[in-house]
Amino acid sequence: METPLLKEALHRSCWVQVLVDAPVRERTYTYRLAADMAAAEGDIVCVPFGGQSVGGIVVGCLEELPAGLDAQRLKTVEAVLGSGFFPATLWPLLVRVAEYYLTPLSRVIEAALPPGILSRARRRLRLVRPVSPMAEWGLSTGAKAALQFLEAQKSSDLSWRFCVQQLPEGQQALKELLARGLIESYFAAGERVRPRTRQYVALTGGPSGLTPRQREVIHCLRRLGGEASVEQLVEAAHTTRSLIQNLDRLGHLRLFERQVFRSAHHAVPADAPKILTPPQQWVLEKLNTAPPGPVLLEGVTGSGKTEVYLQAIAPVLARGESALVLVPEIGLTPQLGDRFRARFGEQVQIYHSALSEGERFDGWRRMLTGEPQVVVGTRSAIFAPLPRLGLIVLDEEHDGSYKQDRPAPCYHARTVALWRAELCGCPLLLGSATPDLASFRAAAEGQYLHLQMNERVAQRPLPAVEVVDMREELDRGNLTPFSRTLQQALQQMHAAGRQGILFINRRGYSTFVLCRSCGETLRCPNCAVSLTYHRLESGEHLRCHYCNYGRPQPRHCPHCRSPNLRYFGAGTQRIAAQLAEQFPALRVLRFDRDTTARKDGHRAIIEQFARQQADILVGTQMLTKGLDLPQVTLVGILAADGLLNQPDFRAGERAFQLLTQVAGRAGRGEEPGRVILQTYAPEHPVVQAASGHDYRRFATSELTERRALGYPPYEQLICLQITGSEQQWVIAAAEALATMLEGDGAFEGQLLGPAPCTVERVANRYRWQLLIKNTAAAAGRARLQDLLALYATPPGIGVSVDVDPLRL
Ligand code: ADP
Ligand code: ZN
Ligand code: ZN
After folding, report:
1. Looking at the structure, do residues 291 and 398 belong to the same domain, yes or no?
2. The domain containing residue 134 runs over which residues?
3. For residue 458, how many other CB atoms are within 10 A of its CB?
4. Closest Cα partner for 561 from 598, 527, 518, 521?
5. Tally of domains within the chain
6. Is residue 56 part of a domain?
7. Per the domain annotation, does 388 fall within a domain?
8. What is the CATH number of the domain that holds 240?
9. Which of 144, 165, 189 is at the close of a domain?
């Protein structure tokens, strides 16, 4: 029976949806908020869950109880531990990402937060000192016992759960102490990531009467500004820890602990701002006077875009605001990160997923302090919790690694950056030599400010690109992967004491193994792809680049037992080996996912090459991303064809960008560069445009075609992927979904498919897709979301949504 009073209480109370820290499928639960509690989205709360107290984050505040939930059975939030992990401007951004990408908000939060904050966040408590003798007055027996227990503990920072377990009436007693202000409760990382502290010492001006040695230490501390870390003082005063501890006991100075932030930064020599070239100067003036909004900086390779970023950031820091710089991949971060650190020193933080959990956790907390800083990071750094953001820079804004593939949220950091800049009212600077066609179109139509730098710094010429027809090489009996032009160029380069880069699309030794007797290729048992042959120290192996399945190289064909196996398609490993064989004098380094897998592997190889301990760098796409190596005069592109023939409407755009970017690594120093582009299709328009460094021609013709076909950036695509372990069920589910979408009168989008994905089977799951051309913008996405919610997904089938897919 509901009494009128209870009814009123129910009416007043508010409900919150909480993303709990527990390994459960349904991640969010509804809780009651007690009358004296207030909570906002993004707050960290403590909630009862499965018999214990767990951490959680408020993802929704509800005025009314959702239908189907029984108010009587809902548990109450134990404590609201305050906001803290998101600055106010970030929350609406996360909500917008969830809405646009048709993803649950909880997934977006998980993608945004560094690991270890939510998943291992634990409630902790601290005794508020000093405890006055009167403190116990009026406390219950349980609370008194708790107070004595806490005072007896050595550590001042305790786990809430531990205390509850140790005390007979733990939960109740602690709440009483909390209400009386005798303890503070807060959230911190759990066992795996703890804030790190260091011992510090400060002057207190305590009683006099010191020995000469003690006095010397005090003087030294005064010279250090009255405060220093213990290590610093030990070294500066040539003293010992025990002497300092003694002075602390005597009250002459005070020892205390302070949190420090872990970081994996390397030392870099400082670097002063360069005198800008006239185009750089012009761009910077435009930037500084432009109203907030997106800016596309289209600058040819080597035009000095990084220097523009650096000088655009300086005034931001001077105003007390922070800057966020996104870079495509980790391979690029060491060199670029160093350039930022050389300019701004300790104000720069490098943030990416290859950091340790502790480093990421500390990085996040440092951002939250609000002190002006520059965060240089990869895709997920777009969610960096910088409270006062003055500028966002996306370097190489065309790069595909800004898009997150599945799992959801399949967000594009550039799209999110546009929203973030809008929410913060700060400028967004998109830089590239080969802008994404969507950015180019937006700039051309006046939605973005469009700035250009068409020349390299110091009037260095763009490298000359020579296209070599590999069909002719074959006709002349050259069966090596190196054309005669390239061979000569390599020799000249070596004679001149310069360095070179060879680009090849694939890693490994051979891209497939074929049986000459029965014609079968050796395939991955789990995926619909051929296996790649790798030569490792441990022996010869076949490996699947999709699911990482591996097996030793068989001596006989598994189908017909013939020993006649042949290796086709060259990868980085084979090129490196053949290069060493044909040019024994050249020292070769390999730069691909296999050789850079160790922590700091990229840095190690790039530094080795930069120190001229090798003549040639053989590598994959990784090479294309902004490397600045002034000694490189020669770039060889071994087979452009693999890039051109991909079953995707963006293949041309990607190939053009890749070719232009690889070519752009040549001639960045004093010496002009030379590029040799080998292909079986020299007349291909992409090859023509790339060899002429003609972005404009390429972009204009490509956009005309996209408009005619109704492809992005003119129409929005949404890809639904249907997966499952049985092919016929996957197809049936995809067809049922298609029928349902087609039958809905309100849904306007045009439907393509269902069709198998480019690689139909990966890790034993079949994958089919439905492509939707969404002509109704936000209304279309909302309708699709409603329809998907209605679709009864058959058991064993997964449906995932990718809004604006990058790869089909
Ligand atoms: P981009 O990013 O446009 O490809 P970078 O910023 O890497 O080009 O600059 C190319 C090279 O030119 C770098 O070695 C850089 O140090 C140098 N550079 C850039 N700006 C200047 C300048 N104003 N004066 C002298 N050298 C410069
Ligand atoms: Zn065979
Ligand atoms: Zn596989």
Report:
1. yes
2. 121-189
3. 10
4. 518
5. 5
6. no
7. yes
8. 1.10.10
9. 189
CATH number at residue 730: 3.30.70.600
What's the half-sphere exposure (Cβ side, CA atoms, 13 Å) at 578?
16
Angstrom CA distances, 228 to 129, 201, 382, stand at 24, 6, 35
Residue 271 maps to a domain: no
How are beta strands 510-515 and 565-570 bridged, if at all? Answer: antiparallel
CA 304 / ligand 1 centre spacing (Å): 4
Of all ligands present, the nearest one to the C-alpha of 271 is: 1
CB–CB of 287/427 below 8 Å? yes
Those residues whose beta carbon sits under 5 angstroms from the ion ligand 2 are 515, 517-518, 557, 559-560, 562
The answer on whether 524 is annotated among ligand-binding residues is: yes
696 and 741 in a single domain? The answer is no
The mean per-residue pLDDT over the stretch 312-317 comes to 96
Atom of ligand 1 nearest to the CA of 299: 3
Q: Which atom of ligand 1 is nearest to the CA of 275?
A: 23
pLDDT for 25 equals 53
Q: Give the position, in ligand 1's atom list, of the atom nearest the Cα of 303.
A: 3
Q: Which of 628, 632, 662 to mutate to test the pocket of ligand 1 (most atoms within 8 A of CB)?
A: 628
Of 41-50, 262-271, 424-433, 601-610, least confident by mean pLDDT is 262-271
SS3 category, 279 = helix
**Do 604 and 641 share a domain, yes or no?**
yes
Last residue of a domain, one of 170, 189, 208: 189
Residues 607 and 498 in one domain: yes
Q: Which ligand 1 atom is the nearest neighbour of the CA of 395?
A: 2
Looking at the structure, tell me whether residues 360 and 393 fall in a common domain. yes
- Ligand 1, atom 5: closest residue by C-alpha: 304
Dihedral sign of CA atoms 337, 340, 346, 348 in order: negative
Same domain flag for 356 and 432: yes
Atom of ligand 1 nearest to the CA of 300: 3
pLDDT in tens, 178-195: 888 888 877 654 444 456
Residue to mutate (ligand 1; options 307, 455, 661; most atoms within 8 A of CB): 307
349 and 387: one domain? yes
Asked if residue 87 belongs to a domain, the reply is no
Ligand 2 centre to CA of 646 (Å) is 28
Task: For residues 196-200, give the mean pLDDT.
Answer: 78
Q: Is the pLDDT of residue 10 over 50?
A: no
Cβ neighbour number for residue 212 with a 10 Å cutoff: 6
**Euclidean distance between CA atoms 366 and 70, whole angstroms:** 42
As a whole number of angstroms, the distance between CA 558 and CA 542 comes to 13
Cα 308 to averaged position of ligand 1 atoms, centre (Å): 9
Give dist(CA 554, CA 561) in Å, integer.
Answer: 10
676 plus 742 within the same structural domain:
no
Residue 14 annotated as binding site:
no
List all residues whose CB is within 6 A of at least one atom of ligand 1.
274-277, 280, 299, 301-307, 457, 628, 630, 668
* Contact of 571 with 504, CB cutoff 8 Å: yes
- 719 labelled ligand-binding: no
61 is in an annotated binding site: no
